[in-house]
Structure formats: structure tokens, C-alpha cells
Amino acid sequence: MQASVFASLVLMADRSDEDFGVPAEEIPGLLIESAIEGRYTPESAAFCRLLMFLGSPALKAAASKALEEHTDDGIYPPDWVTDAGRPLPHRAWRSYSVFGDEEFFVITFNYGDAEHAILVGLDLTMLPCIGVLRASPDPDKLIKVVRGRDEPFERFEEITLTEARRRIEGLLARADEDLDPDVSNSSFMCLPIVRSRIRRLPAGPPHATVTYTAAHRAAAVGDFLRSPLAASAGDADAARFWAEVLTGYSGRVPGEAPAHVGPGRLEAALRWHVVRTFTLTDAQRESLQPAVTAWSRWAAGRQGLDDAATARMLELLQKVFDDFGSAYDSPGSIAHRGYVRDLAVTSDVDVAWLAECRARREFAVPRPVDREPGREVLDAADQDHRVVISISEFGMCDTGLMPRKEWVQAVNRVVEELWHDDPPTTWQTAQRLRAKGMARHDIIHSLAT
């Protein structure tokens, strides 16, 4: 666990845009030097060996170099390190919401007679991501925590180790970037050890993922509009608008059928997706409650939710309706809509594509909370405003031999290329540099030179 905490520090540095004053590739080696403090012992050799097992590629390389320095001095890790990180997987359990908003897994492992467990929680309301991670020498405690969720709308079951790996592995692989921003540091510090444990689980045959297309989403919308519930949705055009928006959001995840519904997903769709994406007409705002209620009832029936679960979902949905107006009109939501205002022109816009475009444009132009002071109110959709935002960030950078005027023009060129994805090679290059650990500011700086 101590090695996992250490390895997580390197992961945190990798995903941070902060300038640490040294090249990113040197951070793992500097952290190891700081931890060992020049005192080579069998325990510090064991520490390096565990980092090679748990760490990122960069940390593994730095730890391997440090271990080689130990062995050159005749200092070797103790024998117990041979078995470290190689426990035998034992059993797995899954707790899940009938609405499909979240899942929790507990998996146990054995070192001889000693047992320990990991807990993995998945948040499925927006883009699926890791919500919580835990590791404990007390498996019964973790099982009790997860089983205690077995309320009217929760289910608890034992599953195979292969099934547990299939459901978790993909999200863990990209958890560095997609980890829920509200997740605690203690969860992030468990990420390296949880990853190592999941790799110990048996892998099954490749899992076939069903592909749902725009045609599937359109068919689902058509089914709703032909259903008796559509009559209570209000104005026909507004009913179609909300049906296409909600169906599109519910079908945003590969392998997930359109019209999947749950209280968490509805809240995320309305208070996160809609308010940050669509510029609503008065008619669309007025039809929000009747149209969304009708679609939610229809989707619940299609999903097989019983009357109690449907009633609970609609009860929680009422609070979303109550808060929608203030969320939509907030300055933050207005600013977010500016990033996709020219793209979200139809209610059936592909949500996954839109998310990719938003990520690219937020890379080009920081969100208001990440801008220089005094630039928060500027509209990213306005090219003149983008110029002001860019100059405030890059105007005083060291340009080397490039004249200041040419430098500003070069930065603005890169920002516009990223904003419009023209040419696509600019964003492709930025993504490659980011994958190598380069910070956003440095990437744009590099592209401009």
C-alpha cells in the first residue's frame, strides 16, 4: 500500500498541468531519490522492486535504474519480495442499481491463509468512470459495506472473477484521466494496487460489444412519439426535441441501448449535458417537465422497471425540474454552451462526437475557471475573445528568437486550428504530446514555435 501511494503521486503529476520546474520525465527519478535519501538497504531495494510492479512505465524505468544501483553495491531485496504482488484471486461480488446508475465490486485475494480485498465503484451516470477505490486486509468489512446497499432498488450477487475483470478493466486502464473529479485522494492512491490486482484475474474470451447507431436512436424516438405517453408530452415539436436529447444522451456509451433511464442519468442529462450544450427556446423550456416526465415513464417501461422503481425515479426527477432554471441560467452554464454553440444545432446531435469536440476546444481555450484573472467572462465562441484569452496566457512567454508579434500570431494560429480542427494534424500532435506527459500550456507553446 505504501508503494501504491507513492506510485499514485507520479500519476497525479502526469495528469497535472502544473509546472514543477523540471521535465516531466525526471519526476519519477527525483521522487525515488527523495524517498530513499541515499540510504541503500534491503528494504529500499524491496521498495524499488514493488514500484517496478505497481508503477507507470516511467516510474518502472526509474525504479529499475535505482534497483540496479542497489545491486551494484551488493544490496538485494529480501526473499519475501518474490511473491509480493502475486496473490491468488479468490471470489468476487457485485452490487448494482436497478436503474443502472452505479455498480460496486468486491474481489478477494489470498497470500497463503491471509486474505485481503479490493473495492471498485463505478459511476455510470455520465461517461462511465471509476468513482471509488479501496484496498483492505478485512474483506468482510468491504463486503458488508457493499451488501449494506442492498435496499429496494439495489441488487447484490456473486459473480465470476472473469466477469469482474471484464466489467472493470477498461475503466481502470484510463482512470488516470477519467477518474471522477470528486473522488477522494485515498481512492486515487489505491489506483496502482487495484490495477495490479485486476491483472491477476482470469481473462475470458473477447466480449462482443453491440454497436448502436443514429438509426437505433431515431427508431427509439419514433417508438416514444407513437406511444400513448407522447400525448402527455405537450407540444409535438418540443416533445420530439426532448425525446431526441434524452435518447441521444442515454445512448452515448458504446454497447448501451438508447433510452436507458435512471435518476442519476436523468439528472446528469439535464443538469450537466443540456444546460452546457443546448440554447433552448421558450417553448422548449416550458415543455421540459411534461415532455421529460412522459419520456421517462416510457423509457422505464421499455427498460422493465417496476412501478415502485419508476415512482422513485420520478420523485427524484422533480428536484431536477425545480433546479433546472437556475442551473441553465448560471454564468458557468452560459460559458460552457459557448464551446459547442455552433455544433449543437440539432437535438439528435451525436453526444460522443460532441464530447470529443468540447474536449478539443477546451484544450485550445481554457474553461473560465482555468483562465487568467479578469478573463472569466469572455466568450470562447467569439474569435476576438479567444485572442484576448490566448494573449493573457501566452503573451509574456519566452519566445526565444521569435519577435513578440510573430509569437502572438503563431499562438493564435494554433488555437484556431485546434478550435476548428483544421488541419486535424494539429490536434493529433497535441494528443500525442499529452500522452507523453507534456502539460497543455507547453504543448501549445511547442506547436507555436
> Which sheet architecture does the biggest sheet show?
5 strands, antiparallel
For the record, the count of structural domains works out to 4
Helix content: 55-70%
Structural class: alpha+beta
Listing every helix as H and every strand as E from the N terminus to the C terminus, the arrangement reads HHHHEEEEHEHHHHHHHHHHHHHHH
Number of helices: 20
Mean pLDDT: 89
| Count of β-strands | 5
Radius of gyration, whole Å:
25 Å
Distance between the ends? 43 Å
Strands across the major sheet, in which order?
4-3-2-1-5
Which segments are poorly predicted (pLDDT under 50) over 5 or more consecutive residues?
Answer: none
Beta percentage is 5-15%
Shape: flat
Characteristic key phrases:
single chain, 56% helix, 449 residues, 20 helices, flat, 5 strands, alpha+beta
Description of the molecule:
The chain has 449 residues and is an alpha+beta fold. Helix content is 56%, strand content 10%. The mean pLDDT is 89. The two termini are 43 Å apart. The chain folds into four domains: 2-82, no CATH class; 88-198, no CATH class; 214-338, no CATH class; 365-448, no CATH class.
Q: What is the topological layout?
A:
Layout: H1 2-14, H2 27-36, H3 42-54, H4 57-72, E1 88-97, E2 102-111, E3 114-123, E4 129-136, H5 139-147, E5 154-159, H6 161-173, H7 175-178, H8 185-198, H9 214-225, H10 236-250, H11 263-277, H12 282-286, H13 288-303, H14 307-329, H15 331-338, H16 351-364, H17 383-394, H18 404-420, H19 424-435, H20 440-448
